[in-house]
Amino acid sequence: MSKNKISTLSRVLLILCAVLLAASIFVPLWRIELSAPQYPEGLVLQLYPDKIGGDVDAINGLNHYIGMQTLHTENFIEFTVLPYILGALALLILVTAILKSRKMSLISFILFIIFGIVSLFDFYRWNYNYGHNLDPSAAIQVPGMSYSPPVLGYKQLLNFGAYSIPDIGGMLIIAVALILAFVIFKEYRIHRIFRKKRAAAIFLPLLTPLFLSCVNDNARPVRLNQDECEECRMTIVDPKFDTQIITEKGRCLKFDDLSCLIRYTKENKDIKIRKTYVSDYLKEDHFIEAETASYIKGGEVKSPMNANIAAFETREEAEEVAKQLNAEIVSWEDIDF
């Protein structure tokens, strides 16, 4: 094979990249989730390549009170050009695969990285401007306060928690970046420092967490003495009894006691629950799916809001502690308040 031509594997991967990029044009790239007590299921702002989606009207209503500009698709030139940029990059990568050009693969990778850096900077600039340029006549004014959501991660904004994370399209673009990096790694013979099997063993684990993270229904860490119970608004202080719900939207609702969790779900029947977790009484920071845990109740078990129920990973552990604390064994189906 000519040193200027890429391998068959690289061609297949480049074609995959082109397909993923083309697909990203039709799905949301990024999402900003807002959580607050008055919005138990949260609000979501989704950024597509060509428009703003999600709970735009509700968020614009909130923005009006704090002096932020309202959000409208037509106000952003990015939504006009971004679909064409993604399409052009997809076409360039596809042509690279057809021509088998090693040089074009490097050019494609460099252009793609530049695109990513410019996009993140533009997103930061957009967040900053909208969060800092406030209307001085707004109904709610907090001196020195700004409302810029994070580019990535979590930030507290008054009583709202703002999560900024990649959406489906963003995940596809990250996958393309990793695959392109692998192609360059392989085609420019950097891979010679590894055996082929070892290189694959390094590359594949990088992609696995990426796709698994698209649907995160795992329990989340609880910040003791900081996080509040969604039901009673008390600060969570005892790691043996805290519980949490992961909603269909991926939002985590935390509670300081099983009684609070159950009352909350009864009062908010419209919330769609993906997973319910309870703390393991014996292992700090270890959560168990509520339906599979074993429970004890009463006796010397004392929980923050008097549910007096402790959860365990195994039946044997529950029985042993029940004897020590003079408690009774109960099942998840028996628990009700």
What features would you describe in this structure?
The chain has 337 residues and is of the alpha+beta class. It has helices at residues 8-24, 56-66, 78-99, 102-132, 168-187, 196-212, 258-267, 315-325, and strands spanning 30-36, 39-47, 52-54, 153-157, 160-166, 243-247, 252-255, 273-279, 287-289, 294-297, 309-312, 328-330. The N and C termini lie far apart (72 Å).
Please describe the topology of this protein.
Elements (H helix, E strand, L loop, with lengths): L7 H17 L5 E7 L2 E9 L4 E3 L1 H11 L11 H22 L2 H31 L20 E5 L2 E7 L1 H20 L8 H17 L30 E5 L4 E4 L2 H10 L5 E7 L7 E3 L4 E4 L11 E4 L2 H11 L2 E3 L7
Antiparallel strand pairs: 1-2, 1-5, 2-3, 4-5, 6-7, 6-8, 8-9, 10-11, 10-12
Query: Radius of gyration in whole Å, from Cα?
Result: 25 Å
What does the overall shape look like? flat
> What profile does the largest beta sheet have?
5 strands, antiparallel
In terms of DSSP E residues, the strand content is 15-25%
Q: How much helix is in the residues?
A: 40-55%
Structural class: alpha+beta
Mean pLDDT: 87
Number of helices: 8
